[in-house]
Specification:
Order of helices and strands: HHEEEEHHHHHHHEEEHEEHEEEEEH
Structural class: alpha+beta
Distance between the termini: 41 Å
Strand content: 15-25%
Largest sheet: 7 strands, antiparallel
Number of strands: 14
Strand order of the largest sheet: 3-2-1-13-12-11-10
Shape: globular
Helix content: 25-40%
Length: about 425
Amino acid sequence: MKSVRYFVVILCCFSVATSSLPAENVAAPTEKTDFLRSPDHYMLRKHLDESVLRGEVPGGAVLLMHDGKKIFKEGFGFRHIKHAKPFTAETPFHVASISKPIIATLVVKLAAERRLDLDRPIDTYLHEMSDLLLESGEAPATLPTLRQCLSHTAGFRSDYDKGGRPWLRYRHQGMTLADVVAREAKMPMPINPGEEFSYSGIGYDIAGRIIELSTGHSLEVAIQTELFEPLGMTHSTYHPDEDTAKQMADFYWLWRSDGKFRRKLNQPLIPPGNYISVGGGIVSTLDDLSKFMLLHQNYGVHDGKQFIPRDAIQEMYRGDRPGKYYGLGFMLRSAGKDGLANEISHSGSSGTLMWLDRRQQNIGVLVTQHRISEGAKMPESEKRIPIDTPTWQAATKKEVLDPMLDRLQKSNSRLVRAQAEK
């Protein structure tokens, strides 16, 4: 009886929300996938829809793969609440810091092709980096390497420190990436390179500029020709056009004081050639991100060919440096006997999360476009949403998706054993 009432509620809510929508805004039919077992599919769909009804998330999309096959790909809720525009499985979105593993993969590819070197000091490519200084006014003990830029151990100012997000100041200023990196080179460094892990997008701006110099192209052209086009990531870009922008999901703050959503006003599009955060500026889709993660699941093989050498791409998963839970562009979890992480992942501040479980051959892309406001100056007693509340994405993965995928793995293992015994 409960399940009947649940579907009646969801149907009524969606009917009201979409009754006045023009035809082009109605959600597209779900792509056929190798579906999860019916109870798991129902449970996941129920969780997604009820999360919208409870006001935990405005909407989003989920793609799951097992053994290279899509087992779930659906959108839920809304990409624009007021206008009741549905968030579909094809909706483009800001990936935010998921840009980092993408850029790191491109750097590793270029290094494998000997077009740049991960371990040479960055002033080899950027002469202005020779003048880097610590906050004490002294020169750093050594200059950072590109490898350290990708692993957040280069010593640059953290995103969470004052002035640690210069892209907020420099975007929409008509500046180039070269202009911004020249200014970032003048920012004092709080620590010596290689000493500590300090999550910093500045290192990724520098990596992007080195990509430009190594390829002879702008970052957008380089990433399109070297990575996106070969992998078939046809809906990924730093610079979406106006048609794509109209289809993108709006971003919402979930206000900590009253638990209500407030839409962030859309910013003007940044034209190609102008600066955008290298480690946070990519726009993509579920399918494109799954193609990217398949490259990693297949040890650098794409379309039957070794696109990136296996040993080079595996080094991205090794956490034997300061910040051992972060490799080259990826967050790392549960190292195996070979020293490589069994699970690689990354999240983004726009409400994105993607991961690859290398043991179980599971890929997940879980997307919303919302974030809980900080409310740092607000007394805890006035917060409707406590400060230690986990993100909806992290909670959904841990409490819903991981157990579900574990059940799938066990079910498949039993089936394989049964067939072997026949």
